[in-house]
Amino acid sequence: MVRLANDFLIGEKSEFFGPAVQPDISYDTTPSIEMSNGVQMPLLGLGTTHSGGYYHDSVVYAIRDCKYRMIDTAKRYGVERELGIAIKMSGVPREQLFLNSKLWPVDFGSSVYDACLKSCQRLGTDYLDLYMTHFPEVPSWFVDPKETKEETWRQMERLYDDGIIRSIGVSNYTKKDLEELLDFCSVKPHVNQFEFHPCYNPAELVEFCYDEDIVFMGYCPLAKGRILDEEVVKAVAQKHNKTPAQVCIRYSIQNEVPAIPKSRQKSRIWENCQVFDFHLDNDDMHALKKLNSLQRKIISTDGLEEKLFLPDGYKLKGQVFGVPQVS
Fold first, then answer.
1. CATH number for the domain whose boundaries are 41-298
2. Where is this site: Lowers pKa of active site Tyr (predicted)?
3. How far, in Å, CA of 271 to CA of 258, rounded?
């Protein structure tokens, strides 16, 4: 088995925990996975979607006290500026953090480079560890969707070549979307971020990413709490004296899928990071894997075109709490 210096159990060799996970890392106690370009990504991060509001003290607590070292955000979430303040308040050096953001489709094409620089400015950093295209869909006002996709990716590659981003990725890309991108890209995406939890495990897409040396990264590891009452999840949690949420996050990690749970409550944020001191055995993993038959996908991309012009962070609904006034 692999252990960290603090003797936290990370995992045992099994069919569900392979050698790609790297224990020798620089993110405090958080284990990481190595991307194809050699950059290490923490296996656990903090999600910051605009659903449910933004609670500044909880974010600072996550970074400073719970040692979350990956922060996942997007221009669309409308909280990049607030996160930049939280990072500074945490006192954690920038180089000890893995910071992600995403490109919204309205900024495809010639606007990519500038959009990334503006995200960096709002976040108070001069580089990102990972920058992703948020969706593969091209807005209808672009005359040639294929040409727009190619120009967008060329601009992403330029950001990577210029050192503004340490790794380059995509989000919500299906196998078909990835195959199209791989036909014209010079630099393969290092990451594909997609929904992943016991009730939604897109195995074919995960396998395709693995074969192409693309890290499959999972959002919604708790399915927004909608699967925590499943009897199988509760039984596994009871067996290990853990919570259902911890079991779901651990399920992602043992599948080598970096997880980015979100919570506004400090107690939940602490709970969600206590996932490296136990191991799900093969019986547990097989039992949880069977839940995939339910195919309970949480995030829908239907009607995306209609939402493109809604303001960034529109789901916050004014719920932004505790952010200090700074000049």
1. 3.20.20.100
2. 102
3. 17
**Token pair 């997609």 is at which residue?**
194
Q: Encoding tokens for residue 167?
A: 């790794």
In the annotated binding site, the residues are 134
Is 314 catalytic? The answer is no
Residue 126, both tokens: 């001069």
Token digits of residue 34:
């190595």
Rounded to an integer, what distance in angstroms lies between the CA atom of residue 251 and that of residue 198?
7
Can you give the residue ranges of every domain in the chain? 41-298
Residue-wise pLDDT tens digits, 93-130: 999 999 999 999 999 999 999 999 999 999 999 999 99
- Candidates 194, 196, 173; CA nearest to 185 is 173
Pick out the residues of the known binding site for substrate: 134
Q: What pLDDT, on the 0 to 100 scale, is given for residue 295?
A: 84
What digits encode the pLDDT tens for the residues 166-178?
999 999 999 999 9
Catalytic residue of the set 77, 160, 200, 251: 77
